[in-house]
Amino acid sequence: MSPPRTDLAELEVGELEGALDAQEVERFHARQIYRWIYKRGVTEVDRMTDLSRTLREAIKAEFVLSTPRVVADDRSVDGTRKFALELADLRRIEAVFIPDTPSMTFCISTQVGCAMACGFCLTGKMGLVRNLTAGEIAGQVRVLAAATGMLDHPFHIVLMGMGEPLHNYDSTMKALRILHSERGLAVSPRRVTLSTVGIIPGLERLAREPLMPNLAISLHATTDAQRTALVPPNRKYPLADILEVCRRFPLKTRRRITFEYVLLDEVNDTPEDARRLGRLLNGIKSKVNLIPLNPAPGIPYDRPSDERVDRFAQILADRHITVSVRKSRGRDIRAACGQLIVEGGTKASAAQQMALLMP
Ligand code: SF4
Fold first, then answer.
1. How high is the mean pLDDT of the chain?
2. What would the mean pLDDT of 25-42 be, rounded to a whole number?
3. From the CB of 123, is ligand 1 less than 6 Å away?
4. Which residue range is the domain that position 93 belongs to?
5. Are residue 85 and residue 19 in the same domain, yes or no?
6. Domain match, 59 and 100 both
């Protein structure tokens, strides 16, 4: 049996140069191949027409190019587009394009399912099916950029789809390096936001990364008892420890950590919660993004009234904390936060945390 072919989608440009070298192909072709894949959105080697036919045949003999396949593209009246993508093993994930937020944003997944089991999230209910590879994470961006005509335009990426990025650390960071390459999409880390429940070993590794995205912590509660009920990893990584890591986190100039807080009616949305949140964030360069829950079947919580949301936001603002309330987008196509469900895959799934977190 012949050995499996190397997947071009999984290679950083330096790795591709090395792989071509090993096949006695000139290294500079790596830059051409990268340009075709990432700048022009090409998914077949045969379409890389500035490579000779002989070279294309040689590349096809040694390499494949895996690309997530669009199996659904639902459009909201507000311009949001929800894509269902099928992977090589027929698993399905979802990724969302959110226009004008104020720029263009792709919200992508890092795992099929999620092991974190947050109480307000449908993805958490399915458990972890598997990690995505770096090529599958970066592949979502090239597919969405091609489908939305954004290959030549600046956009933001939020790692807030299915999965916990720091639970799939190596693939997530490799995907960001692939996307960062000047030979490809050249996505600056300033345009990427990584959202995590606060896996402390992952945060400590992230603090040493040369290519550091913006950081968002999914906080969602102000006491350990309540947070453990809503975000079970809190049992292992309690609030005080996460906030201590945040205090020490090496932020670049003018950057702040975003704290996301899903507001659940009469659960974590009281004035006392707001005041406690203000105290917890003391000494951290932070901003708060409030996310009124988008109710979904199977989620035992309700959305608070606008009055409750406004009161919570005002208490934080009175303490000079920058606070924003996330607008819901794409609700008519179930693309809003907590409403994504892939049907017809190997397992029903949903993505939480989709939408408008901007650095
Ligand atoms: S909210 Fe995020 S971390 Fe929590 S279960 Fe859902 S996908 Fe996982």
1. 90
2. 96
3. yes
4. 69-351
5. no
6. no
